[in-house]
Design goal:
Shape of chain A: globular
CATH superfamily of the largest domain in chain A: P-loop containing nucleotide triphosphate hydrolases
Number of helices of chain A: 12
Radius of gyration of chain A: 22 Å
Number of strands of chain A: 12
Number of strands of chain B: 12
Oligomer: heterodimer
Largest interface: A-B, 62 and 57 residues
Order of helices and strands of chain B: EEEHEEHEHHHHHEHEHEEHHEE
Strand content of chain B: 15-25%
CATH class of the largest domain in chain A: Alpha Beta
Helix content of chain B: 25-40%
Structural class of chain A: alpha/beta
Structural class of chain B: alpha/beta
Distance between the termini of chain B: 29 Å
CATH architecture of the largest domain in chain A: 3-Layer(aba) Sandwich
Radius of gyration of chain B: 21 Å
Number of helices of chain B: 11
Distance between the termini of chain A: 42 Å
CATH topology of the largest domain in chain A: Rossmann fold
Strand order of the largest sheet of chain B: 6-7-8-3-9-10-12-11
Helix content of chain A: 25-40%
Order of helices and strands of chain A: EEEHEEHEHHHEHEHEEHHHEEHH
Strand order of the largest sheet of chain A: 6-7-8-3-9-10-12-11
Shape of chain B: globular
Largest sheet of chain A: 8 strands, mixed
Largest sheet of chain B: 8 strands, mixed
Chain lengths: ~350, ~325
Amino acid sequence: MSPPLLRVRGLRKEFAIGGLFSGGRGKVVAVDGVSFDLDAGETLGLVGESGCGKSTTGRLILRLVEPTAGSVQLRGEELTGLKPHAMIAHRRNMQLIFQDPYSSLNPSMTVREIIGEPLQVHGIDTTPGIDGRVAELLTLVGLGPQHMRRFPHEFSGGQRQRIGIARALALEPRLIICDEPVSALDVSVQAQILNLLRRLQAQTGVGLLFISHDLMAVRYIAQRVAVMYLGRLVETAPTTTLFAAPLHPYTRALLDAVPAPEHGAAPRPLLDGELPSPLAPPTGCHFHPRCPFATARCVAEAPAMTEVSPGHGVACHHAATLPAWPGLSPALTRPPEPRLARLLARFHA
Amino acid sequence: MSAPLLDVRGLAVGFAGEDGLVPAVQGASFALGAGACLGIVGESGSGKSVAALSVMGLLPPATARITGGSVLLDGRDLLALTPEARRQLRGGEIAMIFQEPMTSLNPAFTIGDQIAEAIRAHAPMSAAAARERAIALLRQVRIASPEKRYDEYPHRLSGGMRQRVMIAIALAGNPRLLIADEPTTALDVTVQAQIVALLRDIQRERGTAILLISHNLGLIAGLADEIAVMYAGRVLEHGPAARILAHPEHPYTIGLLGAVPRAAPGEAPLVGIEGSVPDPRHPPPGCVFQPRCPFAEARCAEAAPPLRALAPGHHAACHLAPLEPVA
């Protein structure tokens, strides 16, 4: 069997903290033993709250940040430890889309320069010439070649994100890491970008690591989901399984917290507290201080990721004995009423 | 129905630009009854925050101009008041919380002192009495061991805790109207739900009316009795929350509802509203939503549709409404 597009094993990142003025030196474990696979043509959603380490994980895979330990393999080839010149050949296969379309495009470069630059850097032979290839890419992301000579400030947030996507696609990468690609955009524009990513994946077979705190966006775009809490993965599952029968209490809490677009929807039980400081993570299972099911064992011992069904892993001592989960709020899954569905259909025309 | 607590009529606000005044709010009207919650939903540039700042009297005086309309609180036009009279209202009858709890607190003072300062600004009392009341407010915003927390500095608190402190400061003057502008946007998902629950409790326990401003229809749905949908400086639709969510009449509202992802992978694509919000300096002719509207007809580019009543309390500004007669 051929290796997966991306194989991550035991990925770990420690950041040194303190220094000159704070006396002792300490460390923060931002990413703590993260492992997952991603296949070609697949989207894996990496979900968690701010500070959980999901963005750092993306950067470690690209080696924008050097991992402390662990392995990252792209199509079976180990990337950690490669010399910079050896990484260059792999970089064209791995691209990144940023959250903020305002600060991630150079304001003094034209769209043609922004999208054409990776082609020049990697010395790609473009048969229609760089202009032709940039025009193709602009059309692919729904902008059109007439924008080539314009500057980023002339575009709206959604259009800028399309430019960022075109730049990421320029080298025909096999993997794109999307770090909160729609969080900075307006609601109506988010849908455009999610649809664009879905379409591009179907056309090119690129693998997507979709990093987000927005569970409903992840449910829409990802085939598999990994949930992260304070540096560790707590649950991974096929999307349909995760949203139908989540096992980890933290996953359930995240799903319960999604606001339902319905008047008078019954409030769900709420999780107490907030993400603890990664400077002083709780012992045992990191989630135990907020977990309604925590026992002495959870305080003492970190649970290992255990596969409960094919592709569904959970890191919880009590996963087998938790009460059934009532399910996502029906307002989030119910198809629109017939009238609304008919009216919405006009937007697809 | 008795006169509303807050009645905004035909509000128009512009900002000084290089080539004259750029309109931000154009003839927006909305009303909020005592103890009720009105949600204003809109995207960036819709004018929702500018409308809120106009009610609060916090528009930047150097650049903003209110060019029309009135803001009535209990029948009294706030726009006609002197700056000093408005200052008295702020933090007293009307209070506001913002998106960024990180930058809204003074890092050099303890949270307790900041709450006590707000209390004493509106009701002169001894420092000891203000401390007691500040601790009671911390308890009311569900901060555990408030006596200890009183003496902590903002940097020691998480984002959610800071927003709770901001809410405590807002409640210090016993406001009848609390304006919450994107109160949960900067917070994590699980903390967002906690703050929404807290706002709901405050509305119920204290009878505080809430003007909730958000881009998130799901958040608004959880709190609001009434919803107003703003776009490009105008109110395009307003009505009872249940009605707007179940039976929207304006194509923009319909598009917004469709843009909330509900489908699983492989199911029908999301509704994306094509295009983007118009430049306020160059608004399209006729209806502001017409260039992005899949229902638009020739007449939509000719004249801007006025808000029309379609059902009790339900108004939409669309030539084509009702889009489908009620079966």
